[in-house]
Design brief:
Blueprint (H helix, E strand, L loop, with lengths): L1 H22 L16 E3 L5 E3 L21
Antiparallel strand pairs: 1-2
Length: 71
C-alpha cells in the first residue's frame, strides 16, 4: 500500500512538473487583426490542407466538434 501511494505521488509530481515547465512556453493568444499562424488540417476525405496554400484568398475555418452534438 505504501509503495503504491509513493509511486502514485511520484508520477503525479512528474506530470505536474512537466506541465508547468511546458506550459510556461505557450504561445501568446492571437489578437484581433493579427495574421493567423500557418497550420495543417485534414478534411473528412483525408486530404491535407495548409493555411499557407490559400494565401491571398479568404478562408473560413469552421470547427464542428463531434462530442455532444448530433454530427
Amino acid at each position: 500500500m505504501k509503495m503504491t501511494l509513493l509511486l502514485s505521488i511520484s508520477i503525479l509530481s512528474i506530470i505536474i512538473s512537466t506541465t508547468l515547465l511546458l506550459g510556461s512556453n505557450t504561445l501568446e493568444a492571437i489578437k484581433v487583426g493579427d495574421k493567423a499562424p500557418d497550420f495543417v488540417l485534414t478534411d473528412q476525405d483525408g486530404k491535407v490542407h495548409k493555411l499557407s496554400d490559400y494565401r491571398g484568398q479568404r478562408v473560413i475555418v469552421y470547427y464542428f466538434p463531434k462530442a455532444d452534438t448530433p454530427g
